[in-house]
């Protein structure tokens, strides 16, 4: 599932990105209202986490514009504005939920999962390619019916590769999507992570699914 965070508090945004990525989601984030609206209009996100007070354009305006444009992805307002009138305004504009800061990440994650289950599915909660299957909500991965013991990062990495099966993913893109870091070409963190994932996904099986494109990156495909 692909989630957009529009939040101008850097610490909150980084905290959300890290927690959601570790829970198996692909996450984009921006601190600017105009940029957030542009992203939301042109990318089919599964859910948006939206602050109210933002630079250049507030959350009310972003939500109203999205709904007027026919965008029906779930929107969760995450804001310090706790007046009843603010909550009512958000819901009347078309928000699906409203969470007040400060918040517990466990509660936010539960609300995210609930909203994604309720939403019309653009992606199945499970994804199967060849004999490899993952269940996103349960963070469960199996191959040939055998459950794989993956860490949260390994599951996020496998999810990214499978969602974009057939597409060669660069080390930079993988680092940004899974670790939320700028990739340093002098480090081998991505190669090490891929090697560990392969030891569980590919090594016990005859057919290999995670392939290297020399000098470019990695691709999940059935050859």
From TrEMBL:
<dbReference type="InterPro" id="IPR016032">
    <property type="entry name" value="Sig_transdc_resp-reg_C-effctor"/>
</dbReference>
<dbReference type="Pfam" id="PF00072">
    <property type="entry name" value="Response_reg"/>
</dbReference>
<dbReference type="InterPro" id="IPR036388">
    <property type="entry name" value="WH-like_DNA-bd_sf"/>
</dbReference>
<keyword id="KW-0902">Two-component regulatory system</keyword>
<dbReference type="GO" id="GO:0005829">
    <property type="term" value="C:cytosol"/>
</dbReference>
<dbReference type="GO" id="GO:0006355">
    <property type="term" value="P:regulation of DNA-templated transcription"/>
</dbReference>
<feature type="DNA-binding region" description="OmpR/PhoB-type">
    <location>
        <begin position="124"/>
        <end position="222"/>
    </location>
</feature>
<feature type="domain" description="OmpR/PhoB-type">
    <location>
        <begin position="124"/>
        <end position="222"/>
    </location>
</feature>
<dbReference type="InterPro" id="IPR006291">
    <property type="entry name" value="CusR-like"/>
</dbReference>
<keyword id="KW-0238">DNA-binding</keyword>
<keyword id="KW-0597">Phosphoprotein</keyword>
<protein>
    <submittedName>
        <fullName>Two-component system, OmpR family, copper resistance phosphate regulon response regulator CusR</fullName>
    </submittedName>
</protein>
<dbReference type="GO" id="GO:0000156">
    <property type="term" value="F:phosphorelay response regulator activity"/>
</dbReference>
<keyword id="KW-0805">Transcription regulation</keyword>
<dbReference type="GO" id="GO:0032993">
    <property type="term" value="C:protein-DNA complex"/>
</dbReference>
<dbReference type="InterPro" id="IPR011006">
    <property type="entry name" value="CheY-like_superfamily"/>
</dbReference>
<dbReference type="InterPro" id="IPR001789">
    <property type="entry name" value="Sig_transdc_resp-reg_receiver"/>
</dbReference>
<dbReference type="GO" id="GO:0000976">
    <property type="term" value="F:transcription cis-regulatory region binding"/>
</dbReference>
<keyword id="KW-0104">Cadmium</keyword>
<dbReference type="InterPro" id="IPR001867">
    <property type="entry name" value="OmpR/PhoB-type_DNA-bd"/>
</dbReference>
<feature type="domain" description="Response regulatory">
    <location>
        <begin position="2"/>
        <end position="116"/>
    </location>
</feature>
<keyword id="KW-0804">Transcription</keyword>
<dbReference type="InterPro" id="IPR039420">
    <property type="entry name" value="WalR-like"/>
</dbReference>
<dbReference type="Pfam" id="PF00486">
    <property type="entry name" value="Trans_reg_C"/>
</dbReference>
<feature type="modified residue" description="4-aspartylphosphate">
    <location>
        <position position="51"/>
    </location>
</feature>
């Amino acid at each position: 599932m692909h989630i957009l965070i529009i939040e101008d508090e850097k610490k909150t945004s980084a905290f959300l990105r890290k927690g959601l990525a570790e829970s198996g989601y692909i996450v984009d984030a921006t601190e600017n209202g105009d940029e957030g609206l542009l992203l939301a209009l042109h990318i089919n996100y599964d859910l948006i986490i939206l602050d109210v007070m933002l630079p250049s354009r507030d959350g009310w305006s972003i939500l109203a514009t999205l709904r007027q444009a026919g965008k029906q992805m779930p929107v969760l307002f995450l804001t310090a504005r706790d007046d009843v009138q603010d909550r009512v305004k958000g819901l009347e504009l078309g928000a699906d939920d409203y969470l007040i800061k400060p918040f517990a990440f466990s509660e936010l994650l539960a609300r995210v999962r609930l909203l994604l289950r309720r939403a019309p599915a653009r992606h199945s909660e499970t994804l199967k390619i060849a004999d490899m299957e993952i269940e996103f909500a349960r963070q469960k991965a199996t191959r040939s019916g055998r459950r794989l013991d993956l860490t949260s990062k390994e599951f996020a990495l496998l999810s990214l590769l499978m969602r974009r099966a057939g597409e060669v993913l660069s080390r930079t893109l993988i680092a940004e999507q899974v670790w939320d870091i700028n990739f340093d070409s002098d480090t081998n963190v991505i190669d090490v992570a891929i090697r560990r994932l392969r030891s569980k996904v590919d090594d016990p099986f005859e057919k290999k699914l995670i392939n290297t494109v020399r000098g470019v990156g990695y691709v999940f495909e059935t050859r």
